[in-house]
């Protein structure tokens, strides 16, 4: 089953939880509230067939609780498929904390959130996502062992973002190989939208390769810093989607490929870190395919972060992390070839492999 992004208004017309189109057979949803710290969080546990549900915590100022719920459901579902296609023994889960991370995040709130995670006894393992830092995970670690992405000084694998960026770079190269017959990105115009933890590290790889990098962000300070550091240009126009480019790398938030943008996009390849880039997997996945735009599925190519935090659970080192992340290149190329062979979208080709693995494990588990 695929899912769509819909407006807050539309969401309210559907049954509150089980009826949401992003629900897609979630096993469990936990609503967490704490009056003293102001914590309002939702933990989504989509599927635990392959293992405990692992996925980051996002802190964001949602316009409504509907949006927060829809976001966590979409994200946790995505984690199920991300871990499955990457070959990890993990299920899919995610958490959102409602509020502005810059003004509302306190150590007390993070620890209280950690206590809720702890109450699930390991069925959900948290990590960092948008609005979170490694130091926040260190606070969560004080109250629960069910957290990854803690500081290296505290025995963790550290910040996953550089590894995520490396995986995205590998996926982008595979998409280039598929489209152009060569994976060399030198001279290609790549627009990186969102130059946060992952985006900046991606800019570094692209600059080293000699790509023509253009960056965009809503944060002026970051634009200034990153453009100077890597000598890359800043997008100053008013409609980034209409910009001439070879590759579009969405590294901010999801659903940027939607009804408003899809016909404007001139890129030949889309490969970025953001989760759930297609507002509607079906509709926009097919439209990209029809327009000949190669889409490297987000949940496949942004798996570097989860590979990195999985190392904390499985006790493997940096070398294995890099090997697994580099393999994203092969998997991405294989999926793009499959989508061509069977005339299906790349997203569907990736989903099919992930679902196959989950179904096989379900049968094994029931024996
Ligand atoms: N950090 C990881 O390891 C990881 C792993 C998998 C997926 N992701 C996904 O990748 C994306 C980026 O993650 P991150 O850790 O770099 O987050 P981040 O918060 O560090 O960076 C996001 C950046 O996007 C910018 N931004 C927000 N809205 C924007 C807009 N409309 N236009 C342009 N820029 C905008 C922000 O100002 C910020 O600089 C997220 O969607 C996240 O879920 C991250």
UniProtKB/TrEMBL annotation:
**Similarity annotation:** Belongs to the Glu/Leu/Phe/Val dehydrogenases family.
> What sequence ranges are listed for the domain Glutamate/phenylalanine/leucine/valine/L-tryptophan dehydrogenase C-terminal?
158-366
This entry's Gene Ontology molecular function terms read:
oxidoreductase activity
Organism in which the protein naturally occurs: Microcosmobacter mediterraneus
InterPro entries in the record, alphabetically?
Aminoacid_DH-like_N_sf, Glu/Leu/Phe/Val/Trp_DH, Glu/Leu/Phe/Val/Trp_DH_C, Glu/Leu/Phe/Val/Trp_DH_dimer, Glu/Phe/Leu/Val/Trp_DH_bac/arc, NAD(P)-bd_dom_sf
* Coiled-coil spans in chain: none
Domain of life the protein comes from: Bacteria
Which SUPFAM superfamilies does the UniProt entry name for this protein? Answer: Aminoacid dehydrogenase-like, N-terminal domain (SSF53223), NAD(P)-binding Rossmann-fold domains (SSF51735)
Q: Which UniProt keywords apply?
A: NAD, Oxidoreductase
Q: What EC number(s) are associated with this protein in UniProt?
A: 1.4.1.-
Give the protein's recorded name. Answer: Glu/Leu/Phe/Val dehydrogenase
């Amino acid at each position: 089953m695929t899912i769509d992004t819909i407006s807050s208004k539309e969401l309210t017309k559907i049954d509150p939880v089980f009826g949401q189109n992003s629900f897609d057979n979630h096993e469990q949803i936990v609503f967490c509230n704490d009056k003293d710290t102001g914590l309002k969080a939702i933990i989504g546990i989509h599927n635990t067939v392959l293992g405990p549900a692992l996925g980051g915590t996002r802190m964001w100022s949602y316009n409504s609780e509907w949006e927060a719920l829809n976001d966590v459901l979409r994200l946790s579902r995505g984690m199920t498929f991300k871990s499955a296609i990457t070959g990890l023994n993990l299920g899919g889960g995610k958490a959102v904390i409602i509020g502005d991370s810059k003004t509302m995040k306190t150590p007390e709130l993070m620890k209280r959130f950690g206590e809720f995670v702890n109450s699930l006894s390991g069925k959900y393992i948290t990590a960092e996502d948008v609005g979170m830092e490694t130091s926040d995970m260190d606070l969560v670690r004080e109250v629960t062992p069910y957290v990854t992405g803690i500081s290296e000084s505290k025995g963790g694998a550290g910040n996953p973002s550089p590894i995520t960026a490396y995986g995205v770079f590998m996926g982008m190269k595979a998409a280039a190989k598929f489209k152009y017959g060569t994976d060399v990105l030198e001279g290609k115009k790549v627009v990186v939208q969102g130059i946060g933890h992952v985006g900046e590290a991606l800019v570094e790889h692209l600059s080293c390769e000699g790509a023509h990098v253009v960056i965009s962000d809503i944060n002026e300070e970051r634009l200034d810093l990153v453009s100077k550091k890597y000598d890359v240009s800043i997008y100053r126009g008013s409609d980034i989607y209409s910009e001439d480019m070879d590759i579009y790398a969405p590294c901010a938030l999801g659903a940027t490929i939607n009804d408003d943008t899809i016909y404007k996009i001139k890129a030949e390849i889309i490969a970025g870190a953001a989760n759930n880039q297609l507002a509607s997997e079906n509709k926009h996945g097919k439209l990209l395919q029809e327009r000949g735009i190669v889409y490297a599925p987000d949940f496949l190519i942004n798996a570097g972060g989860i590979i990195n935090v999985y190392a904390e659970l499985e006790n493997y080192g940096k070398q294995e992390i890099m090997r697994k992340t580099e393999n994203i290149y092969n998997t991405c190329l294989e999926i793009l070839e499959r989508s061509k062979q069977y005339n299906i979208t790349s997203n569907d080709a990736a989903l099919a492999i992930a679902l196959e693995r989950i179904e096989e494990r379900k049968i094994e588990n029931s024996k």
